[in-house]
Design goal:
127 residues; mainly alpha; 2 domains; 4 helices; 83% helix; 0% strand
């Protein structure tokens, strides 16, 4: 019978309002902490995917730069880079400028109208 009374006292203590309130407060703090940890984990996963994309971009850039460096180690590659950057030619070489069809017609029309205007004005002053 004594054991029964002890169990009854324990149950009475556990189901008391202050004890239930205390357990509820602890549960709320635990849930709050768990939710904050979940948010941090989600943010970390997002940051991780962003970092992986940056890593892939940087690796592609590194490969491109490695190719350019290996190309610049050859004499032909250096010459090509110098020609592209500074628009220089070797002695005895000439430069040919190719003008597109649309640009060619516009330049020809401008030259014709300018020349004809010049010749008309010149015609006024010459007998």
């Amino acid at each position: 019978m004594l054991e029964f009374q002890e169990k009854k006292n324990i149950r009475r203590f556990l189901y008391a309002k202050p004890t239930l309130f205390f357990i509820a407060v602890i549960l709320l703090f635990s849930l709050n902490s768990t939710y904050k940890m979940y948010e941090k984990a989600a943010e970390t996963n997002g940051d991780r995917s962003l970092t992986l994309r940056e890593k892939e971009t940087l690796l592609a850039k590194e490969n491109e730069l490695s190719e350019r460096i290996s190309k610049l180690k050859t004499e032909r590659g250096m010459e090509e880079e110098i020609r592209n950057k500074y628009r220089v030619v070797k002695n005895g070489e000439g430069v040919i400028i190719v003008v597109g069809a649309g640009e060619n017609q516009a330049n020809a029309a401008a030259a014709t109208s300018t020349a004809s205007l010049f010749y008309r004005i010149k015609g006024w002053f010459t007998p």
